[in-house]
Automatic annotation (TrEMBL):
This is Metalloprotease. Residues 14-28 have a biased composition (Basic and acidic residues). It comes from Actinophytocola gossypii. Keywords: Membrane, Transmembrane, Transmembrane helix. The chain crosses the membrane at residues 37-61.
Length: 309
């Protein structure tokens, strides 16, 4: 007996009861790829937001503000930070111009020349307080060598300075009579030394350096007047010009005494006596300072008294 072939479903019921065909499971599409920098950036943004929130909370609790007088209490203006520097910078002071009337003297080579004087051999006789003429004659030779050398180094004419020792009585000068009992003076290119005055009135005793100091200062003043010439004459009416010239002469003595120190007859005792006399008797307040400037520098420009104060 031959089996009948299965019947094809033809009815609706048969169709309804037929098991449905199995579907393959649906697969999700490929996941988008994220670069690692994306996650780093996201983390930074989150941290910044959290930091801003925390900062605003601190500022709300203690705001760095200062109130400005005259404004409403609610208007708070933040205080600007004060700039600081780890290395303070000192402003360079502007150059001090010479006082009125001294500009030409300040510009003169006697004030600006870098000429120097370092060694002068000065030979002096044994000092005799009762007969000083030979002493000043020898001192004049020393001064000629010192100041003459300094002027020559500055390319200036070497001044001619005469010396007169008034032993007794009086002598005539173009500036009037000079008595032996008067103080040392100078006039028209000549130095008038008065031994009796220096010995008896000033009481310089038997210290040759004190007499030499006075002589060198007077000599330097005469040399400066000759060197400046009409430039000084034009400034002669200026206040304090004579005192400044005296200080400049004192400074030049410092140069000369330093050049003479230890050479010839000028020992440490005489050098000290020059300083004692020019710093104490009839001395201007700054005399010792100018004497030091000349002594330590040996340079003509160190004695520029015209551009100070």
């Amino acid at each position: 007996m031959t089996a009948d072939p299965p019947e094809e479903p033809t009815g609706l019921d048969d169709l309804l009861h037929e098991p449905p065909a199995r579907r393959a499971p649906e697969r999700a599409g490929p996941r988008a790829y994220r670069h690692p920098a994306y996650y780093v950036s996201l983390t930074v943004v989150v941290m910044l937001v959290l930091g801003m929130i925390a900062g605003l909370a601190v500022l709300a609790a203690d705001p760095p503000v200062r109130r400005v007088a005259g404004t409403a209490a609610g208007l708070d203006i933040p205080a600007l930070p004060v700039p600081t520097s780890s290395t303070p910078v000192e402003a360079t002071p502007p150059p001090v111009p010479p006082p009125d009337g001294y500009a030409a003297l300040a510009a003169h080579p006697l004030s600006t020349s870098p000429a120097e004087l370092w060694e002068v051999t000065c030979l002096l006789p044994t000092f005799d307080a009762d007969a000083q003429e030979a002493f000043y004659a020898a001192a004049a030779v020393c001064a000629d060598d010192a100041f003459g050398g300094l002027f020559a180094a500055a390319e200036l004419p070497v001044p001619a300075v005469d010396v007169v020792t008034v032993q007794d009585g009086e002598v005539k000068s173009r500036c009037g009579a000079v008595a032996a009992t008067a103080s040392v003076t100078s006039c028209a290119g000549t130095v008038y030394m008065t031994p009796a005055y220096l010995r008896d009135v000033e009481g310089n005793g038997r210290y040759p350096g004190r007499y030499l100091g006075v002589f060198l200062r007077e000599y330097a003043e005469v040399a400066l007047l000759a060197g400046y010439g009409s430039t000084y004459e034009e400034a002669a009416d200026e206040s304090g010009v004579d005192d400044r010239l005296s200080l400049q002469a004192t400074c030049l003595v410092g140069i000369a005494s330093a050049a003479m120190a230890g050479h010839g007859s000028v020992d440490a005792n005489i050098t000290g006596e020059i300083r004692d006399r020019l710093s104490a008797v009839d001395a201007l307040p700054d005399a010792n300072s100018w004497l030091d400037k000349g002594f330590s520098s040996g340079r003509l420009s160190a004695c520029d008294v015209w551009t100070t104060g």
